[in-house]
Amino acid sequence: MSSAFATKLGTNYCPNVEEAAELKALLVEPVLRLKRLDDEIAEMQRAIDKLTEERNHVAAYISAHRALLSPVRTLPLDIIQEIFSACLPTDRNCVMSASEAPVLLGRICSSWRAISLSTPSLWANIHIAESTSPPTTNTPSVIFQKKMAQRIEIIKTWLSRSGHCPLSISLAGSTSEWTMVPFMEAILSFAHRWQHIRLAVSEVALEVLGRLTPTDVPILRGLWLNDVRFPIDWSRLEILRAAHMSRLGLWGPGIKPEALSLRWDQLTELEIGDTSWRQPHLTNEAILEMISKCSRLRCCKLIFTHRVWERIDVAGPTIEITSLRTFALQTGREALGIAVLGRLALPNLRHFSFSGFVKCLQAVEQEDQTLCRFLNTTTQLETFSMRSEPFSKSFLLQTLHSLPPTLRQLQIMVDGWGIEPISPFDDDCLRALNADPTRPYLFPKLQTLYINCCPRISDEAILEFLHARMALEECSLKRVHFGLERHAEVDISPRLQPFFDAGLDNLSVGYLRISFSPWLGVPPAPGVFDIDILPRNLYT
């Protein structure tokens, strides 16, 4: 369509009176034509809507009949039950929520609901969360009591559906008497089927547990008592001597291993956390004595945050545990718990993590190289994680060279406690993981590398490391993370794609971000319920 105003279109030109009249006359026919086109489109749209409605009706008819041919309808009951079981979480107990199995499975259709309710194994584990807002007075409100009663009834209904299956129960939340007692009483009636129990312990809970004897919990295999905030007379807990107890976790102040009446030789998993500061009992010698009793131990986690300055006799007898596969040691800021490693022999250890702090590691560096000597004996280690305040580059390199070639996962993390957390991991350390003419690759089976707080690593060194690793004939590297804690100097993202093409699953390089907000310091807009205490025109 030609126009005398073609050169003026799309500009800021302002027509005069005569041109405005000419424009109005020019648009009469196009406006009429536009209306005809709109009417025609509307008519066609009505035809399309009618066809769409008919199409949807036919599609619904087909879909409803095809549903009868769905393969899942022909699955045997035992297969459906196995599928339902696979929907349950594997790393924790089921929560009482409609957003996940088994409750969710019962809301798909009536037949699935019937199957889920008639499958006891789906209801054999439960996580019980107490109220996050317990009553603030000694007399809870009627509403709170009603909610508690409903919650208790749901728990009993859930567990009653589990038939005769062994139970796994975890209880978390408040340790107040008003909430703890009803929950403990609710699960106590099922004690004969307890297999794994995890509780946040209060004096009330301890009193309830103290009623139980080993005969009351004939199939109990695992017990974890968390959040202990007061000294415990462990001799009151007879259930610690349950006939089949093999997994134990105790977290609280003043734990005395010698006071625990346990079947030590049955334990395969042990977690001990002594959180007391004033009168610690989990000393190095106590640790060694305790571990020496656990001949079948496969997993051990020890945590103590108190001051342990004792030195152990490194010339003492070595304690060898051939069954141990996983060992985690976490010490406090001024602890020397790492000294126990000098007396341990764990020839089949697969996973080792150490979390300590600067004074501990400085003692290791300056004295007897305990950690490095221990690592030299772990010839089958696959996972190593170290987390501490900053340590020296020489110690880091010695540690890396002490690790065996079987290593698959390496994690070096630096935390700060009143000082700047800077890792000594630099280009030299990263290059040490690659081969050179004098030695082969460190960790040829490495799959995961995680390094944080390492501003001394350059982008070029990262690319060099990835090139060297991904060029291996049998490259195993899959996941890499560098927390550089510095600003990006160049954009290396375009150069990373070849590594993903070569088989790398995950690569993250974290930089510090520079952010300047023009809104910094501007007061927020007043809310609906804000009250002006001072007049807004105070300075006018």
UniProtKB/TrEMBL annotation:
Gene3D superfamilies the record matches: Ribonuclease Inhibitor (3.80.10.10)
PANTHER family in alphabetical order: F-BOX AND LEUCINE-RICH REPEAT PROTEIN 6 (PTHR38926:SF5), F-BOX DOMAIN CONTAINING PROTEIN, EXPRESSED (PTHR38926)
Name of the protein: F-box domain-containing protein
